Amino acid sequence: MTESSAVYPPQATAVSIQVRFGDMDAYGHVNNVSTLRLIEEARCRLLLDQLGWTDLRVLVARQEIEYRAMLHYSTADPKVWIWASRVGGSSFELSYAIENPDGQVTAVAATTIVVIDENSRPAPIPDEARAKLDKLSGPPVPFRGR
């Protein structure tokens, strides 16, 4: 079993994200802020493109990230594996594993997302949205520092 297969469940979906040369920092690897942007882009592609959530209002309540290896610039795109690790009444958690082109997991992360109404108050997750999240359901990301 590779580290990658131990990190993300079979229900996870992969989103390829292009790393730009400008994402690197002075140390020659992708900067920590750029890593968060990769996760944000993967999340938006999942929610908007794959799940079709164009009308659902959500906001990020919490973000946790653990860096496991340096991610370097490459002409081959890394994959961001993403799955739903918790679904509550008005919030859910997405978990991520960033995998470099060689298959090494360079970071894992989790985002707590809250569904909100037109007054920016927490709102119940609609049944259709919940059903789509359930298809991506898996265990919480295995953070090492916990």
From TrEMBL:
UniProt-listed Pfam families: 4HBT_2 (PF13279)
* Gene Ontology molecular-function annotations: fatty acyl-CoA hydrolase activity
- Which Gene3D superfamilies does its entry note? Hotdog Thioesterase
Region of interest (Disordered), residue spans:
125-146
PANTHER family, per database record: 4-HYDROXYBENZOYL-COA THIOESTERASE FAMILY MEMBER, LONG-CHAIN ACYL-COA THIOESTERASE FADM
Task: Identify this protein by name.
Answer: Thioesterase
Taxonomic source organism? Segniliparus rugosus (strain ATCC BAA-974 / DSM 45345 / CCUG 50838 / CIP 108380 / JCM 13579 / CDC 945)
